Amino acid sequence: MNIGIIGLGAFAEYHIQAAELVEGLNITAVSRRNKTELDAFCNSHAITGYPDYRDLLNDDAIDAVLISTPHHMHTHIVEAAAERGKHILLEKPLAESPEGVARIERAIKASGVCFMAGYSNHYTKANRKAKELVSSGEIGEIITGTSIVNKYWMVPERKDWHLNRETGGGMWLTIGVHLIDRLAFFIESRISSISAEIGTRFHNQDADDSSSAFLRFANGAAGFVSAVGYKEGGPIEETLLVGTRGSLKINQKNGVMVGKKDSWVLLEETGTQDQHVDSLSEEWRTFKAYVEKGEASQLIPMDFALHIMDTVFAGERSAKEHREVLIDS
Q: Nearest Cα to 276, choosing from 27, 94, 7, 9?
């Protein structure tokens, strides 16, 4: 299966490395508007480059595309790709607005192409093991879940569009979407409401850098997520699940810890220092199986992806209106 990548941001190199681990998957072309950077990337990987993504979509040799552009560009590129009959793997968030997400949904339904959201947290080594434990009943019914990412915001790969909400920037859309997705993935229930506080506390920018939210799930479980891009602080990256028969602590690098009998036990070899390549290779295997067979065991369905985005946008309304917001089922 031949893949074209539209958008060569920081993750493009991870995707290239991940694709090499998937048998029968070939990244044959890429697109980037900056021709100098495009040429440098193509020369280092011996790959075809298109400054205009529409030329890439017109390449009949390409079966599917990864869209990893700035968030506000997702919608019209998805529409163009769907019209050309290309299967689509779309990086999160789906779009920067509810209107953009609705247009994406219509384009996919009208075209009939295979579509999958790139919620890569479903595929990390630690999360796959945790999901296996949850599904086996190891910790019983989940009562509450907490997922936190507090990190330095102004990393070298931070782009101007990340700093503006109109282009889909900010911690809530960049990282908060991952945290909501994680809890919904583990708890396996629709989210019925959200109460959020989202603001800009550390930086002079037109997008948030601090977000926290309480989630109510339809099955009675509760969740808390916190995504903070600090100017000064210490990193935190952890998910905690509390069930009726035990607990799990999940860290992508360190692995999974099981809490029982008033103590924690680390499960060996459940983490990885190469989180991105590990998760993206599994994501690509799932997407490839979906395109070739029409189904895949770890597929992220469209309705799930849409529900996560509904929750993200409801969180923004909650923060703006200072109230709990119900989420349509």
A: 9
Model confidence over 79-122: pLDDT tens digits? 999 999 999 999 999 999 999 999 999 999 999 999 999 999 99
- CA gyration radius, the chain: 19
Tokens at residue 291, please? 């395109």
The model scores a pTM over 0.70: yes
CA dist., res. 31 & res. 6, Å (int): 5
What pLDDT sits at residue 329? 58
Is 10 a residue whose pLDDT tops 90?
no
Q: Round to whole Å and give the CA distance between 212 and 116.
A: 27
Q: Please give the Cα distance from 209 to 219 (Å, whole number).
A: 31
Pairing of the two strands 26-31 and 48-50: parallel
Domains and CATH numbers, the chain: 2-113 (3.40.50.720), 122-274+300-326 (3.30.360.10)
pLDDT digits (tens, 9 = 90+) for 147-175: 999 999 999 989 999 999 999 999 999 99
